Amino acid sequence: MAQPETAWDHHPEPLAVASAPVPEYGSGSLADLLPTLAAGLGVPDMGAAISELTPADRNCVFLIDGLGWEQLRAHPGDAPFMTSLLATSRGGTGRPLTAGYPATTATSLASVGTGLPPGAHGLPGYTVRNPDTGELMNQLRWQPWTPPGPWQPYPTVFQLAHAAGVHAAQVSSPTFENTPLTKVALSGGRFLGRLSGEDRVDLAAEQLAAGDRSLVYTYFAEVDGAGHRFGVDSDAWRGQLMYADRLVQRLAEQLPPRSALYITADHGMIDVPFDEQHRIDFDEDWELSAGVALLGGEGRARHVYAVPGAANDVLTCWREVLGEQFWVASRDEAIAAGWFGPRIDERVYGRIGDVVAAARDDVLLIASQREPKESAMVGNHGSMTPAEQLVPLLEVRS
Prior knowledge:
Blueprint: H1 33-40, E1 58-64, H2 69-73, H3 80-84, H4 89-92, E2 97-98, H5 105-114, H6 118-121, E3 127-129, E4 136-138, H7 148-151, H8 157-163, E5 167-172, H9 180-185, E6 190-193, H10 197-209, E7 214-220, H11 222-230, H12 235-252, E8 259-264, E9 270-271, E10 279-281, H13 286-289, E11 292-298, E12 301-306, H14 311-322, E13 326-330, H15 331-336, H16 346-349, E14 355-359, E15 364-366, H17 372-375, E16 379-380, H18 386-389, E17 390-391, E18 394-397
Parallel strand pairs: 1-7, 1-8, 5-6, 5-7, 10-15
Antiparallel strand pairs: 2-17, 3-4, 8-18, 9-16, 11-12, 12-14, 13-14
Helix pairs in contact: 10-12, 11-12
């Protein structure tokens, strides 16, 4: 007679790398948005990858940092105008886009602006190793300083549109005008800095009308900031969502003729509880830190750089310790699975971790000593779950 199974007989299998929901590169990711709009404006060598979108003479992208598809749908009372547009998303299909991996601001803004996936533009994480120096490079803050051109050598879609005679403009906070991230991801045409959200959307509408063919980008950061500090669904977060909703409506009501306004985001966000079950501390875990030279990425999307000769051992250990909660892959496995897009440029290969770990469950791999500020955040993002990956593409046309 068969014996009943006990806890000692249970040997859970790690999550299969192939089970991770890879972003829709080439048909429905953030990297496909501007090339599709530029193709409709007649910019050479641009392809209409998002087939559901209809060309317009004047196009405006309003990116609300941190406003994922699931978070928007969960708060209809706080965002009534954007909620009324949910059915328009992705060309009237009512479907979202995917951000790309990892679902983090520096990576997503580079994907938006260059029209390329992370494996090509080369910003494949919050922090990644610079193969030339061996140091961790923070790609959001651009620290330590690294020459921007060699790090991301491709022209932006704005640059290509401007060269093709399209009126291209970015309207954002003056703080971002001369940052390296803006240079590599969003430069081209005019940069117009305005402090208030109202001033930005008003000026974005003016810039749309300034050309017969226009491509305009504007940005709002505060939803993301409130989510990180206080959590999604906090009063502070909901207040910023309400304000963003009013800005979207204000811009929509000012669209000049023959315009299309697209409201999207760079990633979504989830709240992670503050306990040992949900927050695993790398700095206090001798197993996970063994053989690791550098820990990159962020809590839900880690790049792990092993000491020479230890990569296989690190991969084995991380799968044993984290494999039920994280998709854990070697660099080559993650690349082959398409996590970073259909191709990896040679200069980008060494920036990707020897081991790549993407959270499936509501967990974080924090580093309390190395990353005290990031480890204290309530709201987090980075991985391939729907709450982080799915972003709206709401549409208003005039």
